[in-house]
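Fold this complex.
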Amino acid sequence: EDQVTQSPEALRLQEGESSSLNCSYTVSGLRGLFWYRQDPGKGPEFLFTLYSAGEEKEKERLKATLTKKESFLHITAPKPEDSATYLCAVQAPGSSYKLIFGSGTRLLVRP
Amino acid sequence: SAVISQKPSRDICQRGTSLTIQCQVDSQVTMMFWYRQQPGQSLTLIATANQGSEATYESGFVIDKFPISRPNLTFSTLTVSNMSPEDSSIYLCSVGTDVNQPQHFGDGTRLSIL
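Structure:
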């Protein structure tokens, strides 16, 4: 069964304290792995797409990497405005274009 | 990316009633989807809204409970029928333009059932 597991569930960082969020997946034939950010009361906001092992994408303080079994979202020198829930999703093979989401990591960055 | 508007943004409903949620996109899109996000949980796909044909439902979701319409390439509705407190959730619309491309989400409808 296709599955996405994110860890940790929650993460508290001090401003400037770098860390990484993990997304491990089991899917038969990955078509794409997506990272989203979700703020309270909002829908998920797209951050990155990764398609193949070894691929990396970067945006401001965020960097996403992909291996054959997991993806990492690295946050460098985070700021309080980076506080949000970060969601990982995979697109399974087939014609449904379905996204399978992990349960997310709630990040709190304290000033 | 497309601008996605959902209405209503929130509602409080009585048990046994039905509510229709609208999703409007500012440009034509190939794919539209409906997700549910239960309190403290992640997103679960309810169905894919197909333009001009019946929606494709995921396991555990049925048309009688969640009828969906998609009359054109910019609009879809999801109805939550005969509601019970277990239906209290956030319902999100998303759109996609092509396979392997990211889906983009509306801000959701926060539904509480009394």
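Chain A touches chain B at residues 31-32, 34, 36, 41-46, 49, 51, 87, 89, 91, 95-99, 101-104 (CB under 8 Å).
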